């Protein structure tokens, strides 16, 4: 549970976010009165933190994966699969990332100009290197090849219109920045309490593991570079360091909560816990430092689908389409939730149970799972993850943190990288990774014997575990693309519950149904393999480059 609100750090971030990209414009600084003390660099570095993914905005941590295949919304955010994805003049990711990159380079250049060996100042060089890697990874994930700029630019700098740098070079630069950052940043155990939320060495290592896993699997599945296995080796080694070498992180678990520890992890209880490697910080009772994620999820901005619900194993660890499953079927509104992985009812609301929706006026109302009413859903599934029933969550805004990197992801990286490197994974490695995650919720171990007994595929089970554990945390869309399975998964229709179980209370509704009676929420979905794995570059940038900047294929 969050016991301390780190006001000075959060206020600094809030100010930098509200005042724009630079707390003090570079052209108004002089080396004589700034860039001299640790505090100078700290204040400037605070302005980098608003670039982290968080709960605010439409493309936030929870809603990012609406571009994928497991969730939907009343508000139609998925332009990837609905055929409305078109090139645009500008792109928010492009503009924001390059703006933050300029700010990052200003900090790096002033640290280097000091020729200092003071670790108190060099840690902010480490933060800047982390954020440079962070921005380029966002650009790389979205566009592929992008211009790799390594210093601050002026309005007449020729690099403003440079060609795109090959993906391999950008990936290598990101990995090097994160390695260098890890050597300059303090460990979590070396941080003062008031510094909680700042980038640590562990965050740099964990993010390097993520980047290397993405780069390695993209290289192998898209055949864009020949050293994909070496990249997977980096991913595994980074994860191994965090798991085995004097570990500072663990899975959040409270014995009194049991399996519900997973749900509480994403509310106030899990803020800056032992599992948090990097959290975006929010604070109670401070204007501008809260979010409306609970309200958005309750209002239908994030709705789960049948495909997602079906991914949860039964309580014995068997897929529900396996002949040996104890799955209870879809014959009642509650039956599909029975005898399942406990995370299912931590993530999804169970029909028939009483949930509380607290309006912005502080009025508490029962919120049943329904196709109509204040908490309606067009799939029959309602998300429970991220929703707190505390009254002030809706009255003044939610203030629990957004987990950007957590230890469970590191364990999953270790498992996936190990399997992809070797084509197999030992039970010992499974026990040190996936089975630690399963134990939190009381699920049985994944073993090689189990996979053989039930005719399963180890790769698919590793991917399933990742999808379930990290659901609605901005991973699924990127995972489908790096695995090169988006062309198979994305065109499938989005479906909901068996409507006959809800028909009596929704007589006036006549949703589209498939041959088995399941709601079809979105049909005729599209994914063009030769085009849609990458986003279109903003046309304004292409036009300004005088032909140097080329558009992605198919756009």
Describe the fold and architecture:
39% of the residues lie in helices and 5% in strands. The radius of gyration is 24 Å and the shape is globular. It has helices at 7-19, 38-46, 92-114, 119-143, 167-184, 201-222, 228-244, 261-265, 293-298, 306-311, 343-347, 392-395, 407-422, 427-431, 434-440, 448-453, 458-469, 476-482, 486-489, 539-544; strands at residues 71-72, 276-280, 303-304, 356-358, 364-366, 402-406, 494-498, 518-522. The chain has 555 residues and is mostly helical.
Please outline what is shown here.
This protein is mainly alpha-helical.
Task: Please tally the β strands and state the result.
Answer: 8
- Given the C-alpha coordinates, what overall shape results? globular
What portion of the residues fall into strands of 2 or more residues? 5-15%
Order of helices and strands: HHEHHHHHHEHEHHEEHEHHHHHHHEEH
Summarize model confidence as the mean pLDDT: 90
Round the Cα radius of gyration to an integer and report it. Answer: 24 Å
Give the uncertain stretches in residue-range form: 1-28
**Quaternary structure:** single chain
Spatial sequence of strands, sheet with the most strands: 1-3
Largest sheet: 2 strands, antiparallel
Instruction: Please give the alpha-carbon distance between the first and last residues.
Output: 47 Å
Q: What's the helical proportion of residues? A: 25-40%
What class would the helix/strand composition place it in? mainly alpha
Per DSSP, the total helix count is 20
């Amino acid at each position: 549970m969050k016991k301390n609100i780190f006001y000075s750090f959060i206020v600094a971030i809030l100010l930098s976010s509200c005042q724009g990209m630079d707390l003090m414009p570079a052209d108004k600084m002089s080396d004589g009165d700034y860039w001299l003390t640790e505090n100078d660099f700290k204040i400037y570095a605070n302005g980098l933190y608003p670039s982290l993914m968080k709960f605010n905005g439409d493309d936030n941590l929870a809603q990012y994966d609406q571009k994928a295949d497991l969730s939907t919304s009343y508000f139609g955010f998925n332009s990837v699969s609905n055929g409305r994805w078109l090139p645009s003049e500008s792109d928010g990711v492009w503009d924001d990332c390059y703006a933050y990159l300029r700010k990052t380079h200003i900090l790096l250049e002033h640290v280097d100009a000091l020729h200092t060996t003071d670790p108190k100042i060099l840690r902010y060089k480490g933060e800047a290197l982390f954020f440079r890697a962070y921005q380029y990874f966002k650009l790389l994930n979205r566009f592929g090849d992008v211009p790799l700029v390594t210093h601050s630019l002026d309005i007449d700098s020729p690099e403003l219109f440079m060609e795109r740098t090959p993906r391999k070079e950008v990936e290598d630069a990101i990995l090097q920045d994160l390695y260098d950052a890890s050597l300059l940043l303090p460990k979590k155990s070396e941080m003062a309490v008031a510094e909680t939320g700042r980038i640590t060495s562990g965050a740099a290592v964990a993010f390097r593991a993520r980047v290397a896993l993405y780069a390695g699997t993209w290289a192998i599945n898209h055949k864009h570079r020949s050293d994909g296995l070496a990249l997977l080796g980096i991913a595994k080694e980074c994860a191994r360091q965090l798991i085995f070498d004097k570990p500072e992180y663990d899975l959040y678990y409270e014995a009194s909560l049991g399996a519900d520890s997973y749900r509480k992890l994403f509310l106030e209880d899990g803020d800056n816990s032992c599992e948090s490697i990097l959290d975006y910080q929010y604070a109670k009772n401070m204007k501008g430092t809260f979010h409306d994620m609970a309200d958005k999820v309750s209002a239908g901005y994030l709705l789960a689908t049948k495909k997602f619900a079906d991914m949860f194993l039964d309580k014995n660890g068997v897929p529900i389409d396996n002949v040996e499953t104890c799955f209870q079927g879809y014959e009642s509104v509650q039956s599909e939730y029975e005898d399942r992985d406990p995370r299912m009812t931590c993530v999804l609301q169970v029909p028939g149970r009483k949930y509380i929706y607290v309006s912005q006026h502080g009025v508490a109302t029962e919120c049943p799972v329904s196709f109509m009413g204040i908490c309606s859903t067009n799939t029959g599934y309602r998300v429970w993850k991220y929703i707190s029933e505390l009254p002030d969550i809706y009255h003044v805004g939610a203030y629990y943190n957004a987990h950007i990197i957590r230890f469970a992801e590191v364990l999953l990286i270790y498992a996936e990288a190990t399997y992809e490197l070797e084509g197999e994974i030992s039970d010992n490695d499974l026990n040190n990774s996936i089975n630690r995650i399963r134990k939190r919720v009381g699920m049985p171990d994944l073993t090689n014997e189990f996979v053989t007994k039930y005719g399963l595929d180890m790769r698919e089970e590793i991917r399933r575990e990742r999808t379930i554990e990290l659901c609605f945390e901005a991973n699924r869309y990127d995972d489908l693309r790096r695995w090169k399975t988006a062309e198979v998964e994305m065109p499938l229709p989005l479906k909901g519950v068996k409507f006959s179980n809800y028909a009596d209370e929704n007589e006036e509704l006549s949703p589209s149904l498939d041959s088995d009676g399941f709601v079809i929420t979105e049909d005729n979905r599209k994914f063009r393999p030769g085009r849609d794995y990458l986003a279109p570059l903003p046309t304004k940038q292409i036009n300004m480059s005088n032909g140097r900047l080329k558009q992605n294929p198919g756009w």
